[in-house]
Amino acid sequence: MAAGFMFATGIENSYPTIKNGTHRVDEMEKCGHYTHWKRDFECVTELGIQFLRYGPPIHRTWLAPGRYDWEFADQTFAELKRLKIMPIVDLCHFGVPDWIGNFQNGDFPALFGTYARDFAARFPWVQLYTPVNEMFICATFSGRNGWWNEQGTTDRTFVTALKHLVKANVLAMRAILEVRPDALFIQSESSEYFHASSPAAIGLAETYNQQRFLTLDLNYGHRVNSDMYEFLMDNGMTRDEYHFFLGQGLRRHCIMGTDYYFTNEHRVYADGRVTASGEIFGYDEITRQYHDRYQLPVMHTETNLWEGPTGQEAVDWLWKEWANVLRIRNVGIPILGFTWYSLTDQVDWDSALREDNGTVNPLGLYDLDRNIRKVGECYRTLIQDWSSVLPAQSHCLVLPLDMPDGEEEPDTAERLRRHAVRNLDRGGIARRGPGPSRAPGPPGGW
């Protein structure tokens, strides 16, 4: 079937390590998902949402090369299928199993490709994937800021993490396509911008504004400029590694997911300091920059805002982001979906998961008792109002989605046989028509 607009949310499933790799921060555990997963999925259906960013906890599932504990994944994915919720499967979210170590391990990409293939073979009804979540943020926090996993603080550890994360993503896409040729990949990547605070900071800001594209450049085979090529070569990437990324040809299977938060824009100072600038350009302008570079269909894959004293702060942010989505659509950029992330409140993101304080962050559509928040009610109304409008608009793209049918899964051999006989022409994203028509703009009161 052809998909209409994809309204989504997600189950927060970050699991990096801190304290020199000795302590795992597991958001599924902190937020109660292991206990309340059935209720969480009910909440998704109560909101009228059909798409859920979701993935199994890699550190609990992937025990060793070729050895898995699928029990929790089997239970949860069977329930998603029964409820006819389409998962956008997030296979690696800021961490790896203890036996791999961290993102400096050069064996990780090939091993992860096998993990992705084995997951796809076990759940062949799954069509949408984000193999590696926010590769740029993961490389930055793990390899440059010294916060997570390897806690690296140099350009070399940053480039090493970055090239391994992107190669893992590419090998996972290839492996999944061997099992599911019509799979589609929604890269959830942080969309960033760095503002110079003075003329003396312009050069450094421009460097950071080139580096923000590195993960997607490599993932999509987009040639970097000469400055970035020298940066990569000077910090451990080889010519052969660089050319590996140029020759993959996977773009036709991809949707560019862009994440945007109030903290995604930065102020750069002449002395090298970087601080949060707050929203200057906004999602609209920064997404245009990314689309201009890659010319791929877009999905807004993450946003949220801390609920303030009245709850109106988060509601206002939801409407602002939605107005940005409509603006992007109205100027002809094919934007296919929107996500408030995550379903429930999160824990300890106020310290970027660097500290294990148990601080609840009121960012969800529901609180941790699974009571709906004001922004959740607003999102439910937004979905009801706009679902009947947006699919009627003429997209320049058609997503050939095979939505879950709610039936029980056949045995493994039969599952694989059914998916092997699919029409391979369904792979990729089909284009139609001369171009997008204009969706109605937001009312003036927003």
Structure in words:
- The chain has helices spanning 27-30, 33-46, 58-61, 71-82, 108-122, 135-143, 155-179, 202-211, 214-220, 226-234, 239-246, 283-294, 312-330, 374-387, 412-420, and strands at residues 6-10, 17-18, 23-24, 51-54, 62-64, 67-68, 86-92, 128-132, 184-190, 193-196, 254-259, 265-268, 274-276, 298-302, 335-340, 346-347, 360-361, 397-398, 430-431.
- The chain has a single domain (6-431), classed as TIM Barrel, CATH 3.20.20.80.
- Helix 5 (108-122) packs parallel to helix 7 and helix 12 runs parallel beside helix 13 (312-330).
- By secondary structure, it is α/β, with parallel strands linked by helices.
- Mean pLDDT is 91; it is low at 419-427 and 431-446.
- The protein is built from 15 helices and 19 strands.
- A hairpin with a 5-residue loop joins strand 12 (265-268) and strand 13 (274-276).
- The strands form 6 sheets. The chain has an 8-stranded parallel β-barrel, surrounded by 6 helices.
